[in-house]
Write a structure and sequence with these properties.
This protein is 24% helix and 29% strand. The chain has 350 residues and is an alpha+beta fold. The protein has two domains: 12-113, no CATH class; 126-341, Alpha-Beta Plaits (2-Layer Sandwich). The strands form three sheets. A four-stranded antiparallel β-sheet has the order 1-4-3-2. It has a four-stranded antiparallel β-sheet with strand order 6-7-5-8. A hairpin with an 8-residue loop joins strand 2 and strand 3 (87-94). Helix 3 (144-155) runs antiparallel to helix 5 (201-211).
Length: 350
């Protein structure tokens, strides 16, 4: 296909990047089309992979002409939001999932454009997301084998439920006042998909078999926030997100504090990343709407690149000032924990 733009065949993107590369194009709702992971799914592709909205007859007809091979998928991407005269053919080779290291599959992706312009990778607006944080309080008798089973099965939920944009999890690294032992972070595109996830049979099965028999309690923080709508920050993919530390801060706001004051604190927290520069890869904050919040009304999640960066982050004057002058005066209680995030094979190959 002739055109002025192409991806290098050696460029390696993650499976989720390929699946959701349609994010900035047009589908019946927001995304574009649906990519298939196996030929067996061809007959079931009635909905968009990302937003679950029904595909129209033209898109379904296009899907019938896809050439499906083992571990290979091809698709049509049509009408990007930035450039109107555009058609691209995308091919992707899926590398297998490594269960032991909980590595996401990666995809070698190549594309060509009929448009003489660029692919439309420009500064995009902020996109609302829903952050889902669970801090588990596991029993002292919880064994390493049981821990590995729990973490592995939690991690693979992203392959059983469509709509999980990002996931990280691990063992809490330091003692804390709430006796939290493990942390889980997930990102969803909407409250509706979070609710669907909570009722999904796969999640319920993991909870019943690998969590409930061994836990003493949990704290959940669900909040809306905004991130850049580019693929890497939205799906937390790329070299910056390959590994690091997930830092979680929860606090309970006093009941007599007006909403405007609390909203001001959340806005200050959300903009903290700009002041801290490379100490923070991404930071989101918002009001906790989970019914299992254990009293914590607001939350913050920050991806920190390293242990040293975490130390510098927590000792940075800007962060200390916000804690001392903004959060502590309006809070009844506060909890902070962090857990290490293992490498998941998200690096883009050169």
């Amino acid at each position: 296909m002739a055109g002025g733009f192409s991806f290098s065949p050696s460029c390696t993107l993650s499976f989720h990047e390929a699946l959701f590369s349609s994010l900035h194009f047009s589908c019946p709702a927001f995304c574009t089309m649906r990519l298939l992971s196996s030929a067996a799914e061809l007959q079931f592709c009635k909905n968009c992979f990302f937003c679950l909205s029904p595909l129209n007859s033209t898109q379904l007809e296009n899907l019938k002409h896809l050439e499906m091979r083992s571990h290979v998928l091809f698709c049509k991407i049509r009408k990007p939001r930035v450039h109107s005269n555009f058609t691209a053919t995308v091919g992707a080779h899926i590398q297998p999932y490594d269960n032991k290291k909980r590595r996401r599959p990666s995809v070698k992706l190549c594309a060509s454009s009929e448009d003489n312009g660029t692919f439309g990778i420009e500064d995009r607006p902020m996109r609302k997301v829903v952050e889902h944080v669970v801090l588990f309080q596991m029993q002292e008798s919880f064994t390493e084998s049981q821990e590995e089973d729990m973490l592995d099965h939690l991690y693979t939920l992203q392959y059983q439920f469509r709509g999980i944009l990002a996931i990280s999890l691990g063992r809490v690294a330091t003692p804390n006042s709430a006796c939290c032992t493990h942390g889980l972070f997930m990102r969803f595109p909407s409250k509706e998909l979070l609710l669907q996830y909570m009722d999904h049979p796969a999640r319920l099965k993991v909870a019943e078999e690998f969590i409930i028999p061994y836990y003493e309690g949990l704290i959940v923080a669900d909040f809306e926030s905004f991130v850049k709508s580019d693929i890497e920050p939205l799906f937390r993919r790329g070299e910056e997100y390959e590994s690091g530390i997930e830092y979680v801060l929860l606090f309970e706001a006093k009941k007599d504090i007006n909403s405007a004051t609390i909203e001001g604190v959340i806005n200050v927290l959300a903009h903290l990343q700009h002041e801290l520069g490379q100490l923070v890869v991404q930071l989101t904050a918002g009001r906790n709407f989970s019914p299992r919040n254990q009293g914590y009304t607001h939350g913050l999640v920050a991806r920190i690149p390293s242990g040293k960066a975490l130390h510098d982050f927590k000792s940075h004057p800007a962060y200390i000032s916000i804690l001392a002058e903004k959060i502590l005066p309006i809070s009844n209680k506060m909890l902070s924990v962090h857990f290490h995030v293992d490498s998941v094979g998200t690096t883009i190959a050169q």
